[in-house]
């Protein structure tokens, strides 16, 4: 066989070998190195094929739309003022101008189309409108709607996706879904129970280091709490670790570093200013985390989702590094918790970041699929695929009555599905029933295109010369190329719209069509040419 003239067959073989390496390579490597935890086939399965939990819920919040900002509007000051009037934290208020979160001041006089969001279920529309009016915004209750902006939803989707990935769960998926004018966040986590998923995504993921310290006011000692660090200030976040008495760390902890762009220096200076590195050394009472509002002494609280998970004293060694300036050069320490579960959650939140608001679980729905049921779905999906393939095989054999035509056709169709599986493994696609439907559709459309090729070449009489073969093949290929383009155009909107399972079906179908047009259909043409032409004619075709 001339490789230059049959490069399409060579390309199909190379793609098939690459898919085999992606699907079976990790298992072979694990067996060779003595590892026993690798799956025989490197495929991820979604909720419907592995069992797990789906949580669908709206986000807590309200949005004032078409808010007018002026050139002199100071966004940090307005956010602080609105938050104070509504008895919220500033992080629970977001001002956006022109579709972007506003920073500093508005850029144009009389700019319209901005939004102001509050993230709290304890604020009514009337209270929100009043707070805005008191701060110079002419907003009526009709301009306020339940729900948050698309920007906030996108932020939540991205952060929750990172949290699931950081939690070591494969196949998890976070997306938005619309029902009328209401939007939901849909979280699907395979092989996980409802409580496990809720624990993973509950709260905003906000982490803070808060200093609690005494000050004298009019001869009376009072205690103040000042946030010093939050998620964005940490870097080089290590894995959650158990207590290590040998190194002097007697609690589960997470090693972290503070950013050296001024955050570490400010952190050190403020702790010195508040007295932590002098009289505050070792002065936080035991179990202060259980009664943080009444604790005496100097305490550094690790706060996660608004709850104090640990109260620590300033150690003498850390205080010395802050006093002599070494801390700003190497700003590393450990964040301590009371148990390893809190430490693991802390590490996840630090890596993934925080979200501006929470999911409203009480207004949502939860769906849990047992692994035993999912295993039946997996079995039935495999059987459905095999039945579809066998049915197509019978029809092809009946139509052509020649294994020389039918066997290469069916082998090419099977190779196309195998390439799709390799693609799914390469991108970590979590297979669900919608993807299986796409695989079955690809089998049907693939064989249909191969039949068009075979009919065009065989049904118009004997293929006497390579020139005749090439002419008929090009004619058939134009037909299947046009059909492929139509399919891709029709399916493309489904890949970007929030239409649930239809998105997975569309993605698999489009990729299958592309693989067919670019790889498998041309390869089948070369195979058919080699089978139909005599050796003399193949040599003559090669010379041409």
From TrEMBL:
InterPro entries linked to this entry: SecD/SecF_arch_bac (IPR022813), SecD_arc (IPR024912), SecD_SecF_C (IPR048634)
Which positions, given as ranges, span the membrane? 379-398, 410-430, 436-455, 476-496, 502-524
Known partners and oligomeric status:
Part of the protein translocation apparatus. Forms a complex with SecF.
Q: Specify the protein name.
A: Protein-export membrane protein SecD
Q: Which Gene3D superfamilies match?
A: Multidrug efflux transporter AcrB transmembrane domain
| Record family assignment | Belongs to the SecD/SecF family. SecD subfamily.
The membrane topology term of the UniProt record is:
Multi-pass membrane protein
Q: Name one GO cellular component term.
A: plasma membrane
Name the job this protein performs. Answer: Involved in protein export.
Classify the main location. Answer: membrane
Report any Pfam family annotated for this entry: SecD_SecF_C
One GO process term, biological-process aspect: intracellular protein transmembrane transport
